[in-house]
Amino acid sequence: MPHSHLAANWADVRHRVDEACHAAGRDPAEVTILPVSKTFDAETVRAAMALGLHRFGENKVQEIRDKAAAMDGCGIEWVVIGHLQTNKAHDVARLASEVQSLDRADLAAALHRWLQAEGRAIDVLVQVKTAAEDSKYGLAPAQLPAFLDSLRDYPTLRPRGLMTLATHSDDPHVVRGCFRQLRELRDQAAARGHDLPRLSMGMSGDFPLAIAEGATEIRIGTAIFGPRAMPAAGPVAP
Ligand SMILES: *Cc1c(COP(=O)(O)O)cnc(C)c1O
Question: Which ranges carry the Alanine racemase N-terminal domain (predicted)?
């Protein structure tokens, strides 16, 4: 039973989400858990489906291609949560049910073009950079209003909310500040006529703080699937 840990992990995460909701005075039904299956194979995703899960987050389009091919016709919804190169837009338009990492104009234009060709429309979340680290992607908060306005030119992209990754920090105030900023940006956008009900924020290590700040969706990898294998080491430098 190589996947027997999944059911227990899933139940544990669900329980901790419920606790965080109660602590924050929120209804647990308001918070969706997006299982993040990146680096885990199709067989593992199949085992997770046996728990009733059918929507999975992935950060690499190539992995979605491979898993979708291995699981043809399973009715899975693939959610893109990782940084997207524009040249991957065609595959995304074919395979993804949703993109949470929309962070720039040329990507929006490319996705729209391929979605039109496919005759599809998808939900998108705009990824905003709230973290201090340079390594994190996302639109600068100051650019959000104009970017949201520009999405009106792309009817195949349905903006539903915002997404962020918090600063990696041991200080809960720093982490929580990132989540609070995303919620405030959402509220400011609402005042300008953009209805963005969804806030995708919080991962295995910080989701209770995100729930306290209003997350409607948390993206959980490690706490469900276990630790990810380290990438294979490259050749050792001489
Ligand atoms: C990997 C990843 C997650 C999940 O991270 P865990 O810490 O394993 O829960 C969430 N969001 C994004 C964008 C990711 O790339």
Answer: 13-227
